Amino acid sequence: MSSQSLSSLLTSSPIDLSPYETLYKHLHSHPELSWQERETASAATAHLHSLNAGYEIHTSVGGHGLVGVLKNGNGKTVLLRADMDALPVREDTGLDYASRVTMRDSDDVVKPVMHACGHDFHVTALLAAAERLAKMHESWKGTLIVLFQPSEERAGGAQGMVNDGLYDKIPVPDIVLGQHVMALRAGNVGCRIGTIMSEADSFCITLFGRGGHGSMPHRTVDPVVMAASVVMKLQTIVSREVDPDQFAVVTVGSLQAGQTENIIADKAEVRVNVRTQNHDVRNKVLAAIRRVVKAECEASGATREPLFEATGKFPLSVNEEAVTKRVMESFGDFFGDRFDPNAAASTASEDYSILASSQGKPSCFWFFGGVEEERWDDIEKKGRLTEDVPVNHSPFFAPVIQPTLSTGVDALCVAALTFLKNP
Q1: CA gap 226, 217 in Å, rounded
Q2: Residue pair 84/64 in contact by the 8 Å Cβ criterion
Q3: Where are the beta strands (DSSP E) in 39-115?
Q4: Residue 178: CA atoms inside 13 Å, Cβ hemisphere, count?
Q5: Residue 101, class by beta-carbon neighbours within 10 Å (0-12 exposed, 13-18 middle, 19+ buried)?
Q6: Does 261 qualify as catalytic in the annotation?
Q7: pLDDT tens, 109-160?
Q8: Beta-sheet strands, E only, within 96-245
Q9: Could you tell me whether strands 175-185 and 77-83 are parallel, antiparallel, or unpaired per DSSP bridges?
Q10: Any alpha helices (H) in 89-216, and if so which ranges?
C-alpha cells in the first residue's frame, strides 16, 4: 500500500471524536497518582469492552496495567502504549474541568493531584486509535496490542508489567510504539533517529546532624545549613565538571527538614534528579554527587555518613534506526510540513522502551504538540516561548483539546499501519 493510499485510507475511515473529548475531560478532572490508577484503568477497560471489537483484555498487569490484544490474521505484532498516572501538583489552569482531587501518596501524605504531564491525552488517544483501527480491520493484517501502563512517573510501571508476566499473557511485539504530548505547537509531530529522551536517576539523600534548641545552635549540628551547602555545591557539577559538548542536568527537587522555626532538626532529606544522555557522563555526575555530599557532610561535622537511597531510574530512550525511518516516512507523507524529522532529543525521560528492550525488540517514540496554534505563533513572534508556554509538570500545563487529540490519534494509527497495513 502506497503512502498516499495510507493517507486516503485514514481520511476515509474517521471516527467521531466528540465522545473522546468528553472522556478526556473526565480523565483530566479525575487524575490518580502512580500505582493508584484504579479508576482510570477501569474506565479504559470498560471502553475497550464497549467497542465490541474482539479485543482480548487483560487487567491488573503489574498493578493497574491494562492490555487489549486484537488478532487479525498473519502479520506483524505491533504494541501501542499509553501511560495513565498523574502527578502530585495542584492544578492552576482555571479550566472548568480542572482537577480538584487529593490523594494519599506512597508516604501516606495527602497531596493535590493533576494530569500535569498529559497522560490523560495519551489514554484518550490510544482508546480512540483502538476503535479506529478495529473498524479498519479489513485494511490490515497482524496483531494489534494496546497497552495502558501504570506508574510511568515513578519509573516502575513498564518494568512492573514485564515482571508480572506481561509476555506470558500476550504475544511478544515485533515493534513497540509510543508518544508524548509536549509544550509544542498543536497539530505538530516530531521524531528523530537515535536518542529521543534522556536517562534519569532519582534518589533521596539523608543528611544527619544533631538537633536542639533554635537559640543554641552551638550545641547542635544544623542539617539545614548542611543541606543548603550541599544544594549550592551540587549546582557546580554540570557547569564545572561536565564537558560543555555533553548534556547533563542535576536538579534538587525537594529539601525537607524540621517542623517548626525554633527547633534545629536532626536530619534533612535532599531529593535529587539527574538527567544524562551518555553513560560515561552519567557515571561521572553520579560519582561527583557522592563526592560533594560526603565532603560537605564532613565539613559540617555530620554525626554520621549520609544515606543515599535510589528512588527511581529511567533508561535512555533510543529510537531504533530501521523502524524509526519507516515511521518518519509515513509521518512525513501524512502530516506534511507539520512533521519535524529532526526533533530535538528531550531532556525528560520515559520508561516505555523497557517494553521493547526487555524482549530485544525495537521501539520508536515521538512527540505531538498541545499549545493552541495562534497562541503559539503569537508567543513565538514575541520571542517568549521559554517564559510564556507552560511545560509538562507545570500547574498551568493545559493542552488544547483540538487539534491535539486528533493529532495524537492520527499519529498512533499512521505508525501502527506502517507495519500492519495490507501490501
Answers
A1: 13
A2: yes
A3: 56-61, 65-72, 77-83, 102-104, 110-112
A4: 31
A5: middle
A6: no
A7: 999 999 999 999 999 999 999 999 999 999 999 999 999 999 999 999 999 9
A8: 102-104, 110-112, 142-149, 175-185, 189-190, 194-197, 199-208, 212-213
A9: parallel
A10: 119-135, 157-163, 166-169
Q: Of 42, 82, 86, 46, which Cα lies nearest the Cα of 64?
A: 42
Burial of residue 385, with CB atoms counted within 10 A of its CB: 0-12 exposed, 13-18 middle, 19 or more buried = middle
Helix or strand holding residue 219 (H, E): none
Cell 508480572 -> residue: 164
Q: Could you report the per-residue pLDDT of 345-358, keeping only the tens digit for each?
A: 999 999 999 999 99
Give phi and psi for 55, each to the nearest 5.
Answer: -70, 130
- CA atoms within a 13 Å half-sphere pointing along the CA-CB vector of 299: 13
How does pLDDT run across 205-226, given as a tens digit for each residue?
999 999 999 999 999 999 999 9
235, 249, 255 from 239: Cα distances, Å: 7, 10, 22
- Report residue 17 as a C-alpha cell: 471524536
Q: Catalytic one among 152, 296, 372, 410?
A: 152
Which one is catalytic: 32, 85, 320, 350? 85
SS3 107: coil
Question: Number of C-alpha atoms within 13 angstroms, CB side, residue 208?
Answer: 8
Q: Catalytic residue at 85? A: yes
Write the single-letter amino acid at 56.
Answer: E
Query: 228: number of CA atoms within 13 Å, CB side?
Result: 4
Q: Beta 77-83 vs 102-104: how paired, if at all?
A: unpaired
> Would you state the cell numbers that stand for residue 342, as one nine-digit string?
529532526
Please name the residues in contact with 20: beta carbons below 8 A apart, sequence gap of 6 or more. 124, 125, 127, 128, 405, 409
Band the pLDDT of 334: cuts 50, 70, 90: very high
Please state, in angstroms and rounded to a whole number, the distance separating the CA atoms of residues 104 and 114: 13
CA distance 110 to 114: 13
**Cell numbers 561527583 correspond to what residue?**
288
E strands of 21-72, at which residues? 56-61, 65-72
Displacement of CA 136 from its chain's centroid (Å): 29
For the chain, percent helix, then strand, then coil, each to nearest 5?
40, 30, 35
Query: Which of 200, 77, 90 minimizes the C-alpha distance to 147?
Result: 77
How far is it, in rounded angstroms, from Cα 1 to Cα 139?
10
Question: Rounded to whole angstroms, what are the CA distances from 71 to 125, 190, 349, 378?
Answer: 20, 30, 31, 46
